[in-house]
Amino acid sequence: MSLHPRRRRTKLQWGAIFLLAAVWILLWGDVSWANLLGGLAVGILVTILLPLPPIDFHGRIRPGALLYMLGHFVWDLAVASVHVAALALNFRRKPRGAVVGVQLRNHSDLYLTITAELSTLTPGSLVVEAHRLTGMLYLHVLDIDSYGGAQKVREDTLALEERVLRAFASDAELLEAGLTVRPVLTRIKNGVNGKRGADEPEVTP
């Protein structure tokens, strides 16, 4: 006996309900039974009335690459914060802002969203537009001259996307994005499970 589609979809969103309840408690700033029950009620109403479309995730989480991505993000956050503070205190220099387009390698909604969110959370840069069909991001940079120019923005954004892909993407998605699979040698599946075919290319780290 199968569940009704709406009922099945609601069941799959319990993680989102608990997350919304946690956000509700944080907004009130008080952990109480009333706020917990109120947050759960709000979460259930939101997921039923405004259900989010399912996100297809075909990758795998790599703990080492995930820690590296988070550590690099914290470092970028600290450096960018100091840079923006220095710009704010320098009254004699007016920063020159610019909007830079960056073509990402992967068009997945999930990886594009993570890359855009991390870029926006970094002081001095803000994603103003994202094209999910083409994988194009448009970033507003606070001071393009001190950043190193538009090409440096593109290089750093692609490097961020690579860290995201290495943390979450599958081997096939890495290869599709033009990235090598690391740190172990991986076999490319050519429609046949088991032994490597004669024409199957070697994957090097």
What key attributes describe this structure?
single chain; 205 residues; mainly alpha; 3-stranded antiparallel beta sheet; 8 helices; 3 strands; 9% strand; globular; disordered C terminus
Question: Your description of this structure?
Answer:
With 205 residues, this protein is mainly alpha-helical. The protein folds into two domains: 5-49, no CATH class; 63-176, no CATH class. It has eight helices and three strands. Strands 1-3-2 form a three-stranded antiparallel β-sheet, with helices on one face. The radius of gyration is 21 Å and the shape is globular. The termini are far apart. Mean pLDDT is 82; it is low at 1-8 and 183-205.
Give the structure's gist in a few sentences.
The protein is mainly α. Helices cover 53% and strands 9% of the residues.
Assembly status: single chain
The span between the termini is: 48 Å
Shape: globular
Q: What is the count of distinct domains?
A: 2
Strand content: 5-15%
Number of strands: 3
Number of helices: 8
Order of helices and strands: HHHHEHEEHHH
Derived from helix and strand composition plus strand pairing, the structural class reads: mainly alpha
Tell me the helix content: 40-55%
Write down the overall mean pLDDT: 82
Radius of gyration: 21 Å
Instruction: Identify the strand order in the major beta sheet.
Output: 1-3-2
Main sheet?
Answer: 3 strands, antiparallel
Q: Segments where pLDDT lies below 50 for 5+ residues? A: 1-8, 183-205
